[in-house]
Description:
This protein is an alpha/beta fold. It contains twelve helices and 15 strands. A hairpin with a 3-residue loop joins strand 3 (about 40-50) and strand 4. Helix 4 crosses helix 11 and helix 6 (about 225-240) packs antiparallel against helix 9. It starts with a helix and ends with a helix. Zinc ion (ZN) binds near residues 203, 215, 220 and 222.
Amino acid sequence: MPTIMKIIDELMNYELIKVTGKGEINRGKPPQMLEFVSNNHFVVGVDVGTTFISTIIMDLSARILCRQVLPTMVEQTPDEVIDRIIESLHFVISNSDVEKSRILGIGIGMPGILDNEAGTILFSPDFAWENIGLLEPISKEFSLPIIIENVTRAMAMGEKWFGEGRGLETFMCINLGFGIGSAIVIDGELYRGVSGKSGELGHMTIGRDGPLCKCGNYGCLEALSSASAMSNSARVLIKSGRKTQILEAVNRDLDKIEAKTIFNAAKDGDPLALEVVTQAIEYIGIAIANMTNVLEPGLIILEGGMTKAGDFLSVKLQEVVDRHTMRYVGSHTRVILTRMGENVAAIGAASFLIKRLFEHGGNADELFSR
Ligand SMILES: [Zn+2]
């Protein structure tokens, strides 16, 4: 009881909870009813993608106050990309009119293998970055706590707090975009592996003699089935003389072929597009089935650009997963699309700060004194 009272006092001090009245009981002193106050504090989230940097500031119920999307310009130097992240952070913080003292911190979701403690990107095949310090230049600009996490883990965090993962102890997020990544929630917590580098589903070897991957290995799922791999496959087939409506859709400019173009043509029944889509989905489905046989996650939430293909993607993937999972193991596994929209990674990155806040029960002073 004294511990609970101390935590409640503290949460009241910081206006994180408020009294809403007295509860009714049959005898004894009526209890005080408390409610969480979500709009007194704010968190900032950044989704660093290969095409766009999307930055938001939101309250603790994920209501977004301000958002900015800037092109990433991944062909520029890491310093220039980091400058854009800083620029967009300044933009959302100053345009939200939120008092600085009410901002709990900044969460950044970034593709690749990271050293979370050091705030360093060890290796990001999508960005072709190796050993780039991200935390240091950003913390020089903002005297706020900063958490840096892999972007797919940020998506899983977003689902856990505000999406399809609410109330679930075990589920998986699979990010299907320019690259392929995954994040696993087990017993309500993100699974990180012994040194924080788990989840590299995109680099699961699916074809022993498959194409070279950006990571340096051959036959990775990502080299076979990511959005960029699909575009490559379509280009190869078109150059071999095959006819397809994709050509008209891109005005005969093969460089303009995107996964979206291929999915649209496949939905119209274009044979070449269907072939590319079916093959990509087959490989992704096999990878998911492998994970399902090992972990039995129950729910698989699809994220990333490829989810724009909608139910067409999730239904086909579910079929492949059902076909390749072992009897009994796969019967509880559902493959669904995220319902959180394009802000899922930024909301998830910001949610790491909310999680930290509540893990500090009884110690919030430490968190707020800076
Ligand atoms: Zn690879």
